[in-house]
Specification:
Radius of gyration: 22 Å
Shape: elongated
Strand content: 15-25%
Number of domains: 3
Helix content: 25-40%
Structural class: alpha+beta
Number of helices: 12
Length: 323
Amino acid sequence: MSMVLSHRTALELYRSSMMPVSGYEKVSFLSLSVPTRNDVECYRALPIRTSHIPLHCVVPKPRNRRNIKNGHCHVFGGEMNAICLHRSTDESSLCVVSPEVLFLEMAAQLSGIELVKLGYELCGVYSLPMSQPNYAGIPRGYSRRKALTSVARLTAHVASQSNNRSVKKARWALRYVLDGSASPRETELSMLMVLPRKLGGYGLRKPEIRHEFATSSEVLLFLSGKSTAFDLHWPDAGLLLRYGGQALKGNDDDRKRNRHLISLDAAGSRVVHVTNRDIRHAESLDEVADAVARCHGRHLRNDLQYDFAARQAELRERVLTGN
């Protein structure tokens, strides 16, 4: 018999550095156990327990649902990929759903914008703190890890499912998710750049996230989470949007001139610079986004049939943390 953890419990586990991932295996839903109070208590006693209550798990049929204190059963028919966390001597196992299944499960519980953010986290190389399932408030830091999945794998899993509301939302969200984000700030800037204008974004084409290091010390700073430098790269336009974290030195006039200055890197790509100060101020980021758009041979439209400023303010409130 097996118990498979899912939804917010699975998300908390993936954010936990204590999670012992032993590999994927096919879990037959005919072998799924109906969780009991003892199952929940045994899980809470393990060192891999999460801090989010209630415990969420999946069962194969509606009749398998049980009312259990500190437990919630979700119905999921068929078979799925899962990760085995713990196997007892009687061959019963405790598993957690794969990142691909988790993404689709959370599509039923998160808004579209929140789901895009989750996609960046799952496809990125960072984890948010545990007990922050709604992406609200200021994170208490983040940790680096290997990417749990990729946009291609999430897309393939979503495409294999029957069409319903959650699948449609997941398909929409994946249009704006990029692989390789290494921090919440990278996720936030990328989202603001690629989300459509009608939602308050800049509606730019999807770039690639790129990290380059000149020295071994820069690699160590990146791995420790102390380096925040990254590029958004549009190879077809030969363009880099380079984020360096801190504001450029000098007075306001110098910073304004530098922001409009498009330089060339060693490979001949045009480079537009953006700082944390630009991201925190909408007008400054508008100028940066317009510079990027002009490098693509277009201008950001101002003759919209809706109040873009209001939608932009709403989106920034939902996307930015520690604004």
